[in-house]
Amino acid sequence: MLKTRVMTAIVILAVTLCVVFLAPPLVFNGIIAILFMTGCREYGRISDLPGTGTAVLMVLQAALFALLFYMWDAANQFVIELLAVFCAAWLLMFIRLKTTRAGESPAPDSLFRSLGFLSAPAALTGCWFALSWLHEQPSGPMLVILLLLIIAASDTGAYFTGKQFGKRKLSPVISPNKTWEGVYGGLALAVPAAWIWANPVAGFDIPLWQLVVITVATAFASIGGDLYISLQKRRTGLDDAGKLFPGHGGVLDRYDSLLAGAPFFALAIAWLKA
C-alpha cells in the first residue's frame, strides 16, 4: 500500500509540474475542468445524492464551466468580486463545521443532500476560476506552484508536528487526528517555504508581512476544505470519495485542501495587484 501511495504521488507530482509549466492557459483551464468534473461526480457520492441528482449536478457544473469559458474576458473584469463571492461561500460552509457536534447522526437527510448539492458548484467552480486566473498572470505558473507549496508545506508540517507534539484536538468530531499544535507546526514550515519560493526563487518581491498573511489565510482555508470534505464523507460512511488515484482515493480526497485554499490565495494576490 505504501509503495502504491508513493508511486502515485510521484506520478501526480510529475503530471502537475508538466501541466502547470508546459500547458498554455486554455489547455490548463480545460484539464482542470475535466479533473473537477470527476470531482463533481464524487461530490454527488459523498453528498448521498441519487443517480439523477448527481447527473443534474454534473450538468450544472459543466454549464458553469462553459459559461465562464465563454465569458472569460468579462469575468476577468470582476476578479476580486467573484473571488470574494467564492470565499464567502466557503465561509458559510465553514459554519457547518463549527456547528457539528459530537453524537450528530451520521445518517444523511434531505438537508444534508441539499447542502451538498449547493456547495459542490461553489467549491469546484471557485477553485477552477482561482487556478485559471492565477495561471494566466505574468509568472502565473510560479504563482500556482506557490499556492501548492503553501498547502503542501502546511499539510506536511502539520502531520509531523501533530504526530510528535499534538495534544489539543482541532476538530475531534470530524477529524480526531488533527491538532492545534499541528496547525502551528504547519504554519512554521509553510511561511519560510513560501518566502523562499516567492522571493529568492520566483522574484515576486512580496513583503514578508504580506506573505505571512497570505500563507496563514491560505493554510487555514485549506484546513477548512479538508475538514468539510471529511465531514461529508463521515456522514455518508465513506473512507474515500473516489478511486481515481491508487492509494490516495479520488479527486476530492487528493485536492480537498486546494478547493478552499485556492480562492483565498487568489483573492489575496488579486488584491495586491489591484
What does this structure look like?
- By secondary structure, this protein is mainly alpha-helical.
- Helices cover 78% and strands 3% of the residues.
- The model has no long low-confidence stretch (mean pLDDT 92).
- It starts with a helix and ends with a helix.
- It is built from ten helices and two strands.
- Helix 5 packs across helix 9, helix 7 (140-165) runs antiparallel to helix 8 and helix 9 runs antiparallel to helix 10.
- It has one domain (2-273).
Compile the SSE list and pairings.
Elements: H1 2-22, H2 25-46, H3 51-70, H4 72-75, H5 79-98, H6 110-135, H7 140-165, E1 169-171, E2 175-179, H8 180-201, H9 208-236, H10 251-273
Antiparallel strand pairs: 1-2
Helix pairs in contact: 2-3, 2-6, 3-6, 5-6, 5-9, 5-10, 6-7, 6-10, 7-8, 7-9, 8-9, 9-10
- From the alpha carbons, calculate the radius of gyration and give it in angstroms: 18 Å
Relative strand content: under 5%
- Number of DSSP-assigned strands: 2
**Helix segment tally:** 10
Average pLDDT confidence is 92
Q: How does the major sheet shape up? A: 2 strands, antiparallel
The arrangement of helices and strands along the chain is: HHHHHHHEEHHH
Low-confidence stretches: none
Indicate the overall shape: globular
Could you say which structural class the secondary elements and strand pairing correspond to?
mainly alpha
Number of domains: 1
The quaternary state of the protein chains shown equals single chain
**Percent helix among the residues?**
over 70%
Distance between the termini: 47 Å
* Major β-sheet strand ordering: 1-2
